[in-house]
What we know:
Layout: H1 7-24, H2 33-51
Amino acid sequence: MLRFRRMKTLQKFASVHASVSNHFNTERHLVDRQTFKERRSAALAEWKSLAC
Length: 52
């Protein structure tokens, strides 16, 4: 928080970071490797479709 000079900039960053973090955070310790890889691939594919 100390690097942001304005509260509005901090709020904008936090909003974007939260949505991206929630999209890719899959709680790795709770799933097996194959399921993790499938979910990660699906998340990346969705992210690419949204970004382009």
